[in-house]
Amino acid sequence: xxxxxxxxxxxxxxxxxxxxxxxxxxxxxxxxxxxxxxxxxxxxxxxxxxxxxxxxxxxxxxxxxxxxxxxxxxxxxxxxxxxxxxxxxxxxxxxxxxxxxxxxxxxxxxxxxxxxxxxxxxxxxxxxxxxxxxxxxxxxxxxxxxxxxxxxxxxxxxxxxxxxxxxxxxxxxxxxxxxxxxxxxxxxxxxxxxxxxxxxxxxxxxxxxxxxxxxxxxxxxxxxxxxxxxxxxxxxxxxxxxxxxxxxxxxxxxxxxxxxxxxxxxxxxxxxxxxxxxxxxxxxxxxxxxxxxxxxxxxxxxxxxxxxxxxxxxxxxxxxxxxxxxxxxxxxx
Length: 333
Known about the structure:
Layout: E1 9-11, E2 17-19, E3 23-24, H1 31-44, E4 48-50, H2 58-68, E5 81-86, H3 96-107, E6 112-117, H4 145-157, E7 161-167, H5 171-180, E8 187-191, H6 199-207, E9 211-215, H7 236-245, H8 249-259, E10 263-264, H9 271-277, H10 287-294, E11 306-308, E12 314-316
Parallel strand pairs: 3-4, 4-5, 5-6, 6-7, 7-8, 8-9, 9-10
Antiparallel strand pairs: 1-2, 11-12
Helix pairs in contact: 1-2, 2-3, 7-8
């Protein structure tokens, strides 16, 4: 499902359209920076905002939404695409609707354009966002992804959500959902950038009429997870393309994703970066330049949550759960 290059939106299988360029809202710093970033971004022309319960800032984001979204404000509700995500503690069938309604209430909205299962692993509720035992091990709930998905479908039935999707699921897990789904996932949101392009998963999504959306499009250099690498935007190949085409290396990376048919949700609170990210339209990368960016692939995933155990050791948060998604390489059986 490759969108026309002149389009700023992609049509989902269910007929709804989604702006290909969005703004991520996961921010480690002062949430006031994030809310001001959202205000500025919408004024500048962003029309897709990606939220999540687990980001811990939906109430603050809701205050900004109340000021800028609505009749006589910056944008009508119908003109902006808003996504949120179900957290791992709310996977059980009897918790999904309440979790969705809580996020809607915090954000001051009547419906979500897109609601996503944030991670495949379910956690025991009532003991914080990442519940642990005395040794530091995560308390997994064992809720199946099928149970959660059936409850997600009901959100569409009752009008709380227009489209439903998945995040951080592998192709085998998505196939399990497709095999039982009454309402198919419209979007799969995953890590994707020039160093980890997730091409095998993109091809899988395209074959299933699922739109892939890339988070961490610049490799999340501010995150403590994964190997310490030079900033992706300083890569000599990207810098050379940038000089040749007269666009910033960030615009080159975003344009590369759009031309792959991939939605992209860079996070920034810096006004110059936000304005720069909008400069992705009205030009194209050549086939040769697309291939040069493809060639930066390392196969190294960065967004793998870790936890510190009681003995001080560090472990991958979800690795011991049956729904851990990163136990095999996409495209290889």
